Amino acid sequence: MEVTFSGKYAVSSETFGISFEAHLDGHRINCNVSQEALQDVDPDNAAGDVEQQFLANRSKLEDLAERKIRAALPTRINIDSADVRP
After folding, report:
1. Confidence band of 42 (pLDDT split at 50, 70, 90)
2. For residue 41, what are the domain limits?
3. Is 64 or 14 the better-scoring residue by pLDDT?
């Protein structure tokens, strides 16, 4: 089971979060990160732009996404504030 990330991402005009693309054995999985999770993953930069918050914490968010994908084998996952809080 191989999880990879395409590098594609977009700011959501509906949720003000970020969505990014993962692939599991060739199948696309849409990963959504809430605005609140972006603020919580880096509290010192909570007032920053969501794209900057995502890029600064991309590896941590991709690690979280990979763990969620491996645990559930979904076609879509959401990363919210509870996932990034210590």
Report:
1. confident
2. 3-84
3. 64
The CB density around residue 67, as the number of other CB atoms within 10 Å, is 13
The domain total for the chain is 1
- Order of strands, sheet of 27-33, starting from the edge strand that comes earlier in the sequence: 3-11, 18-24, 27-33, 76-79
User: Whole-angstrom Cα distance, residue 9 to residue 82?
Assistant: 21
Structure tokens at 21: 């693309």
Q: What is the CATH number of the domain that holds 7?
A: 3.30.160.140
What are 11-28's pLDDT values in tens digits? 988 888 999 999 998 889
Name the one residue in this structure whose structure tokens are 């605005």.
35
**Predicted local confidence at residue 47, as pLDDT:** 76
Would you mind telling me the total number of residues written for the chain in this entry? Answer: 86
